[in-house]
Every structure is written in C-alpha cells, then in structure tokens.
Amino acid sequence: LAKTTQPISMDSYEGQEVNITCSHNNIATNDYITWYQQFPSQGPRFIIQGYKTKVTNEVASLFIPADRKSSTLSLPRVSLSDTAVYYCLVGDGSSGAGSYQLTFGKGTKLSVIP
Amino acid sequence: NAGVTQTPKFRVLKTGQSMTLLCAQDMNHEYMYWYRQDPGMGLRLIHYSVGEGTTAKGEVPDGYNVSRLKKQNFLLGLESAAPSQTSVYFCASSNQAFQETQYFGPGTRLLVL
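The joint structure predicted for all components is written out below.
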C-alpha cells in the first residue's frame, strides 16, 4: 500500500493561503492523489484529485512534482469555515483480486484563527 | 437525490449483542464501502463491494460481516459486539474504482458497553 505522511495539525489566520504537504514515497505508477475534507460529525468530502503537475478547481489547487513522491494542497484565502481535517489519499491502483485499498491516514487538522 | 444515507444515526449496544447497520445510495454506484473512524486514527476500511452480490475484506474486517444483496444497499453486521467496536462508522459509494470520488454518508455512532 502506498502510505501517506502529513502534518498532524496546522494553524492559519483568516485570509491567508494555506499549503498542506503530503508525502507518498511509494506511490505506484497508476495511482492518483486525492484530497478530502472532513468537518466534525460529518463524513469526508472530496476536494480535489490529480496525477501530476498542477490541478485547480473552485476550492483548491493541487501541486504534484515530477517524481510524484509528494503533493501540496493549497487553499487560497482561508476562512473560519475551512477549519477541518484534510486527508491525503493515494490509491493502491492495483486491479485483480483484493487490492482496492485506499488509505486515509490520520489527516491534518487545520485550525483557522480569526 | 439523498446521496448516501445511513441507519441508525446512533446506537448503544451491550457486549455480545448483534446489530446491522444499513447504508443506502441512490446514485446507482457500483462500489460501496464501510469505514470506521476512531479518535486519532483517521478512517480505516472494514469491507467493500465492487458490485451487487460481491464483497471483500478491507484493512480491519475482523468482527464484521457485510452483504450486498441489492445494488443500492450495503449492510454491515456485528454478530457479537465488543467494546473495541465502539466507533463512528461511515459508509461511502463511488461510481467505479476506489480512485473515483467517494461520496460519504453522515455516519453512525456506535457505543458498545
């Protein structure tokens, strides 16, 4: 399984850009990198997904270097409502018998301060 | 379009009791998953299904059984509940493989005394 490593927690002031980096040294060739957001007492919610270089949507940007051993989620101008846990996921990517693991890890708890 | 729903929202069991958690999705998704979330542990995959009539073990399957008799439903069973199974259980579904966007339910909080 491709495991991920993220910071346990981060603090940021409102209006700042927040960058959360995830390490995934054992990422497989056909694995995508996906980020989820989870608010307290709710299920995780998809934010963004990418394979290489840069992906941007209305919520965030995802930067992936050429070696794909890490990725950075960028949240522009965070607000109090962005306070949540952010998970970086890398799929096993295997097909066939049994290899459909998708490891969530412990995530990064982002606290946005007024 | 309700997305993914879970029943019940909260349940208290005594050790040794059994129960079934129901997950339903109305998006016609092929893949469905059961996760558990414990404090400080993130989400861990219990069982999953890649289609109606199929199930497979995830990372932490012991003590749980699942069934996918209908495409829209995925049931998680605890035959003999233990305090170690106190957790929040999330169901999710996706259109195709794991790496497709997973849509999560609101969770079921289970307390085993």
